[in-house]
């Protein structure tokens, strides 16, 4: 097995996916915020809200275009770099991606043009419907992609066909309503809403610091703080739900995130701080909060959360059981389409759930049935992802999540009860915080994907078997090409975003200024004291 090939393939896909996800959360969140702003415009008919809608929609459009471009590249990599994966599970994984392309992507792609160029061609209500359809389409895209990814984390609604040597879907309903997929969807879109809220908050704070576009900035802060506060609270609550679902579907990932090397007496404590040692398999200087992990992971005070050592023992047992299934599979393949004896079919079906664990041995031996005890032990230990990066990535992500709640709560309070007056230090903090939600989002995906290793499809298909048979030179050349091309795109993205942020709201300026001046005059007249 060419591990260098697999690691390079993983590196290339990780860079592509994480770069793509720089654009996704802002697209998800800005689409909703723009729709909210336009809703207020239609309800009030105040030009300032129309101007706000057009300004933030411009930034949404820049981000949307580059997000689409990088997403298409990422999907091509399934066929190029992960051809055996595509062959093995394509019947299941391809279905939600096809639905995403046919329904969600075409929905947003069809109406995004009308959103930008239909202001003077559609009625206010008609244009508002178009804007909401773009927002709904963007979020539906995330739904179907996360259904596909959720199936990789928790492969339900499918079974292995020993004749075709492929996984085949048995229930589309189970795939769509997979508990992991649904938890990931609501958690991910909420994180996108936080990202956009922090972005709008930070840009608006920069305008206030510069003394520019004050009316737009204050109203934008009010929208961002209100929407962002709800989203930030949702992220924490829905993240807790993801932890609970991991207790059922991905026990090893949960144990690694917690640095839980051995099963604790229920209820398990939560490790706030510590230094996981993968070699010694212990966490040094650990600081615990009693019972909290038990409540998060099991919703009870009596159920245990298995530790890494016990899960490795369970993996070894499943490898041995999987070998029985693998032996039956090889005998079925040797029949070359002849009728399968009932006892052989029964032997395969009785142990087929553990077939993927037998495949872990292919890293060490071509025929898993010839594996030594030492190789079985190595394969069992391969089921443990590297703990320390998961441990720290998760805690940094959580700390940032609570920081977003505090920030949004403060700005919501100032916008609602202090007449939108914001101290300059708070505004500076809002500007500095702009990159923070992207850091949290990338760490979240790192935890989700790195924590699943050594599996491409958890418990079904090891990553080491999934890669295409490419040369190292092919991967290095394409990796260098991706890095170069994406770096250019990133520079273009940042240049355009900075350009239009500096330019500020340039559409409907005269109409908005005239309305604001008239409105200010009316307020002054209403508040004036009659001359005596």
Quickly describe the structure.
By secondary structure, this protein is mainly alpha-helical. The chain has helices at residues 3-20, 24-44, 47-80, 83-117, 124-153, 172-176, 179-210, 214-249, 251-258, 292-298, 308-334, 342-351, 355-359, 373-381, 387-417, 424-432, 436-450, 463-466, 472-503, 509-527; strands at residues 158-161, 166-169, 270-277, 282-289, 455-457, 461-462.
Give a topology summary.
Blueprint: H1 3-20, H2 24-44, H3 47-80, H4 83-117, H5 124-153, E1 158-161, E2 166-169, H6 172-176, H7 179-210, H8 214-249, H9 251-258, E3 270-277, E4 282-289, H10 292-298, H11 308-334, H12 342-351, H13 355-359, H14 373-381, H15 387-417, H16 424-432, H17 436-450, E5 455-457, E6 461-462, H18 463-466, H19 472-503, H20 509-527
Antiparallel strand pairs: 1-2, 3-4, 5-6
Helix pairs in contact: 1-3, 1-19, 2-3, 2-5, 2-7, 3-4, 3-19, 4-5, 5-7, 7-8, 7-16, 7-17, 8-15, 11-12, 11-14, 15-17
